[in-house]
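Re: weekly structure request thread

Next one in the queue (303 aa):
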Amino acid sequence: MDQIIDIATDGRHLSRDRGFLKVSEDGAEVGRIPLDQIAGVIVHAHGTTCSASLLTELADRGAPVVLCAANHAPRSVLMPLEGHHAQGARLRAQWQARTPLLKQVWKQVVVAKIDMQAAALKAVGEVHGPVTMLRRKVTSGDTTNVEAQAARLYWPLMMGSEFRRDRAASDTNALLNYGYTVLRAATSRAVVAAGLHPSIGVHHANRGNAFALADDLMEPFRPLVDCAVRGLVARNGVQIDTEAKQTLARLIALDLQLGNGLTPVSVALCKLATSLGQSFETGKLALALPAPPDPLTLAGLGA
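Done, posted below.
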């Protein structure tokens, strides 16, 4: 099963040892995990050191290494240069994708995000009708920015009327930062594995954002983090302890309805990225977007 590894204790050394990521402190081993089970490594501790051979092994498996600031927002992501046997052709198709196709991609992503937001609100007993209605107003490319309209309705209901989304804040926002970092790492891995370039976004186009496409594709999955954070805050407050990190890291194993069966989030991200790559190559849009989990599952996240 895919796992996100979090390194939060200063003085740890990460190395490769016969197919395992080994964690050591003062020369003594304190833990290990099979490399093939790692979906990503998130480093918060400032005194962490890594061997070059470990970084190479993680790159071979498409597992990103995310370096975070004190507010748990990512500051750097190490990703492999190659990720797919047909990467060259797919990258050309991605770069040459026509604007109408890109606009339709973003429309479907926004609609899927709004559906997930509405399902999340319904699951936690909040009014969801106005958010649900907005999905009908999303146009090609979301030129009227319905995504932002939905966000203005969604956040006060999900997190309280006083909440403001601020990446630099140390309150609930820090928990959201961590959860989104986990999700971004898993999405980045999926993008590279699909032979796509993470900096060539569909909608996000900040010149300084090397992971614009990952930020695009993770949008429909964000409300899963929001539900988990809401549950964590209600139970334990805003502290980011080991239990909170483990709860958020486990979200990539949550089963979602995709097609005719259930698929873990990490696999759903891979299928979504792959379907986007295939859409670029064929010129015909066919995105593999999951349906929201059932209300009981959503309400239980973080509880």
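Residues 179 and 225 are 6 Å apart (CA to CA). The mean pLDDT is 90.
Next request, please.
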